[in-house]
Prior knowledge:
The chain is mainly alpha-helical and 339 residues long. Helix content is 79%, strand content 0%. The chain contains 19 helices and no strands. The N terminus is likely disordered.
Amino acid sequence: xxxxxxxxxxxxxxxxxxxxxxxxxxxxxxxxxxxxxxxxxxxxxxxxxxxxxxxxxxxxxxxxxxxxxxxxxxxxxxxxxxxxxxxxxxxxxxxxxxxxxxxxxxxxxxxxxxxxxxxxxxxxxxxxxxxxxxxxxxxxxxxxxxxxxxxxxxxxxxxxxxxxxxxxxxxxxxxxxxxxxxxxxxxxxxxxxxxxxxxxxxxxxxxxxxxxxxxxxxxxxxxxxxxxxxxxxxxxxxxxxxxxxxxxxxxxxxxxxxxxxxxxxxxxxxxxxxxxxxxxxxxxxxxxxxxxxxxxxxxxxxxxxxxxxxxxxxxxxxxxxxxxxxxxxxxxxxxxxxx
Length: 339
């Protein structure tokens, strides 16, 4: 009888083994769509389901992926496992802020501060929140709290620069931004803000601060555009074109750089053929860019290519039937062509 039962036992063992292999494969497949490091966190959770730091790691992943409901579920799980960790609440405030749940964001930041009076990050985030809601007095109070803990905190000075700027005190704003870069010589945003403030004043110092920022982020096209616009606004067309061309090396379809080169060629240098070429590239990059369409029509008109000009003015009116410049352009062509 024993000999007859051995094959059955063997089959049962094999069947259990196959089911186990299948379950393992199913678990592996469940993580196949995730980045390897995130899949590893989930595998660690199978072994250590009560480890709150693993849920925090998942929160970071879901925030970066803009999957905010999943981020919220994970950080709440971390807090449920350890409600004494103030940084978990700080992370919760980030999730609420990303979800635009502003009241909850503020409430949680206040809770973090009540748990940890020396949490600089909570004071800074609360200051930013007050700033965004134009509560400047409260923003200053939070920044004072940070600086009482850390008098050399560069971000506190940077945010204070924002507040002063919005309050209309550009001198104090500049002073705060300068203090920020003194404390952190690689503070890109502070150099950028200094460039913008001096740009508004048409002060040549704008160039120096924009270039300091570009030393940190040399391929930042927004900053390159700001620098090119400064040169264009002060009449340095060669340097404007040079910086627009640098932008186009990074992004050949940057519509504003293409358009502005065309505008300089047309308005400042009367190089109408070159202007047409750049306006055309801008239109190819964005067929709804009405200013590029109209300005190409204007360049065609300057070249006395009236039929081409008429087509662009008509196209402008398709994009916006109340676009007065195009209406005036068509009226002008009617007179020129005796229509």
